[in-house]
What we know:
Layout: H1 7-23, E1 27-28, E2 37-38, H2 40-50, H3 53-68, H4 89-106, H5 112-139, H6 143-150, H7 155-176
Antiparallel strand pairs: 1-2
Helix pairs in contact: 1-2, 1-3, 2-3, 2-4, 2-5, 2-7, 3-4, 4-5, 5-6, 5-7
Amino acid sequence: MFKKLTTQDMVYAAIFAALISVLSYISIPIPFSPVPVTGQSLAVMLAGAILTTRQAGLSMGIFLLLGAIGIPVFSQGRGGIGVFMGPSGGYLIGYLVGAIVISLIIQDKKSYLHIGLANIIGGILVVHLLGIIWLNIITDMGLQKSLMAGSLPFIPGDLLKATLATIISVPIIKRLKGSL
């Protein structure tokens, strides 16, 4: 029924949980949005592209759990369950769903095009959708304003991150082939 977690699953998940935690410190507040620009989405895309679905989900789950218990792994050095109740809570949950979606889309198809499309769908569309919905609920600013403040300004940077994640992940996947 459920496959046992291997040491390799746990190690890879821990590495990517650490990566997203470190990249959360790349955080640039922007005046027109309650959501900062961060390096986290790059780590989400890398995890989804490089790891198995189980490892990707586990890595994002570990990251979210660490943040929920108060370790300052979220953007701007924040931590605690209250962050989930703030404007960026939907994006955090989106990281978990997005990494899993990326991994599910990729499966055994490891071309630049396939991985790039998976990063755009899971790493941008899924994350932004969940983030916008939550931002609207929390701030009551309306879906259109939530889209304007919580998604549109971030799309160019996220497309750059999707490109970087694709370029970085393909050679790593080829190198690790068979060990994941």
